[in-house]
Amino acid sequence: MSNPKESEAILLRKVELRETSLLLTFYTKESGKISGVIKGVRSPQPQFAGVYEPFTLDKVTYYEKKNKDLFVISQCDLLEYFAPIRADIECIAYAGYFIEFVDSVCQASEKNEDIFFLLRDSLNAIANKKGSIKRIARVFEIKLLNLLGLMPRLKQCVECDSKDTFNGAFSIKNGGMLCGKCIKKDITSRKILQGTVNFMDFISTMPYEKTLRINVTEKVGKDLEDVLRGFLDYHVQKRFKSLEFMRQIGV
Ligand SMILES: [Zn+2]
């Protein structure tokens, strides 16, 4: 048995195993994504109910068992319940999307503190209404693409490195901008507003808090949403249940 570790962690998933055991999947600050079993949980006690809800921020103590993929979780304490999120179905839908996204794209036990901070900051931003919910979601998507090394190339043509992309287009397939000369390399490439390119670049390079405050036109906001959805559908290739839920409730 290894030495126990302690970490801040955001709960991604919960599966009930037996009456008093749960299989929990967290994104931890110290170890990345981990799954583990916690025993002796008596669910009817309401004072402990919150700690095992998805997207709570908890403090967990866990250790590895030899030759086992699953960790043993010996302690789990609630740090932040994000109550304002749970009072609003739109907020629940977006928080659900964030954790599903991280859960889908992150491999087990690959530590990345920045992903942990991005997830925590995004949940905090929704709970404290630090920006519009759509803005919080776009910032989350762009910053996560960046952290995963999947950020589209914006300032130079992806084919020939030309910086003159003004008459170019955005190629989802090729992963970024094509200049006017290279546009024919992807007939499905689409026009993109210069404001959208600048805004994406701003979000990917600026500190988190600043990205929530800058104002952009509604047109740029919509353009960015469309570009990102197309890009994520193509490159991440996951069917998120949370997105289906968002469509159903019309957000
Ligand atoms: Zn080019």
Features of the shown structure:
five-stranded mixed barrel; binds zinc ion; 21% strand; OB fold (Dihydrolipoamide Acetyltransferase, E2P); single chain; de novo design (two linked rop proteins); alpha+beta; two-stranded antiparallel ribbon
Tell me how many strands there are. Answer: 7
Residue runs with pLDDT of under 50 for 5 or more positions: none
Number of helices: 9
Counted up, domains total 2
Q: Approximately how much helix is present in the residues?
A: 25-40%
Q: In percent, how much strand structure appears in the residues?
A: 15-25%
CATH architecture of the largest domain: Up-down Bundle
SSE topology string: EEEHEEHHHHEEHHHH
Question: And the CATH topology of the largest domain?
Answer: de novo design (two linked rop proteins)
Overall 3D geometry? elongated
Computed CA radius of gyration, to the nearest angstrom: 20 Å
Question: What do the pLDDT scores average to?
Answer: 92
Question: What does the main sheet amount to?
Answer: 5 strands, mixed, barrel
CATH top-level class of the largest domain: Mainly Alpha
Q: Compounds present?
A: zinc ion
Which structural category fits the helices and strands? alpha+beta
Strands, helices and their partners?
Blueprint: E1 5-18, E2 21-28, E3 32-38, H1 46-49, E4 57-64, E5 71-80, H2 83-86, H3 89-105, H4 113-127, H5 133-147, E6 169-171, E7 176-178, H6 194-205, H7 208-213, H8 218-235, H9 241-249
Parallel strand pairs: 3-5
Antiparallel strand pairs: 1-2, 1-4, 2-3, 4-5, 6-7
The structure holds zinc ion.
